[in-house]
Amino acid sequence: MKEYRVYEFYVSKEEFEVLEEKLFSLGTLGIEIVSEEEIVRFRAYFDGDIKLTKELSKYLVSESLLKEKNWNEEWKKYFKPVMVSKKIWVIPSWMKKDFKVPKGAIPIYIYPGQTFGTGTHETTKLTMRFIEKILRPNYSFLDVGCGSGILSILAKKLGAKKVVGCDVQKEVAEEVKLNSSLNEVSDIKVIHGSIDDIKDKFDIVVSNIEKHLLEPLIPEIVKRAKKTVVLSGILKKQKDSFKEVLKRNGLKILEESGEGEWIAFLCRK
Q1: Taking the domains of the chain in order of start, what are their residue ranges?
Q2: What are the tens digits of pLDDT across the range 4-36?
Q3: CA neighbor of 112 nearest in space, from 145, 143, 72, 162
Q4: DSSP summary character for residue 216
Q5: What pLDDT, on a 0 to 100 scale, did the predictor assign at position 82?
Q6: According to CATH, what is the number of the domain 117-268?
Q7: CA-based end-to-end distance of the chain
Q8: Dist CA 66 CA 43 (whole Å)
């Protein structure tokens, strides 16, 4: 069974973001915050051993190995129906026959595969609420980093005519196909690649990915948007620096919305 290397760090709040970016540059699979007060305790996961820099090593408190699990089966224990808004519900695929959808609601059925987007995370819910608010029938819609396809499926159910999703993860096409079938929607075009592989312009462009991945894509996102952009995946403590990035790229913030530690932005060119 495969094993992952786990590094645990203690660092001040002021230094956490710098260390986080350095760990992502080393190829971390993800970061888990254990506690966040004046001192942030967090874990970084890697696919094998890495050589930590001196700067990182001084904050290291422990190393350990984590055996691989069947994460889909683990996730099923905790994934329950989620009310995103008065109108939108996200429902595990295995509860499709058993869960009674409230009258007038839009159900989104999702199977938790290897990509991001089950509707339980705050960033996904924030993005979905903005999409519900602004999308009109026959709009064109682009999802950058589409993952499970949850946002694209919502766009289709709200009446979008042309829906395209792109993602660098190779598993995406099959997962979007599966989730589209569960929701009885079709004609979602999935491109294995980044936004550079998209040539058209869209009425709405959305992206719900982490800040360090999102920021380099914003100039291209702006080029692909006719007017409206929705961006999520930003921690509230990153808000001010991210707003400066939006301003430099010619985006006007129409609205911000937050939940938990996260914030999303509705923007206009």
Answers
A1: 3-68, 117-268
A2: 899 999 999 888 988 988 898 888 888 888 887
A3: 72
A4: G
A5: 93
A6: 3.40.50.150
A7: 49
A8: 12
How far is it, in rounded angstroms, from Cα 184 to Cα 257? 30
Can you give the pLDDT at residue 241?
Answer: 94
- CA–chain centroid gap for 63, Å, is 28
30, 95 in Cβ contact below 8 A? no
Mean pLDDT over residues 226-249, rounded? 95
Interatomic CA distance for residues 182 and 188, integer angstroms: 13
Rounded to the nearest 5°, which phi and psi values hold at 21?
A: -65, -40
Question: What is the residue type of 101?
Answer: V
Angle at CA 246, nearest 5°, toward 242 and 252?
Answer: 130
Query: What's 3-68's CATH class?
Result: alpha beta
What are the b/e assignments for 139-178, b being 16+ CB within 10 Å?
bbbbbbbbbbbbbbbbbbbbebebbbbbbeeeebbebbeb
Which residues, 6+ apart, have CB-to-CB distance to 158 below 8 Å? 106, 131, 132, 135, 137
| Reported pTM | 0.77
* H or E element in which residue 84 lies: none
Closest CA to 215 of 190, 193, 248, 237: 248
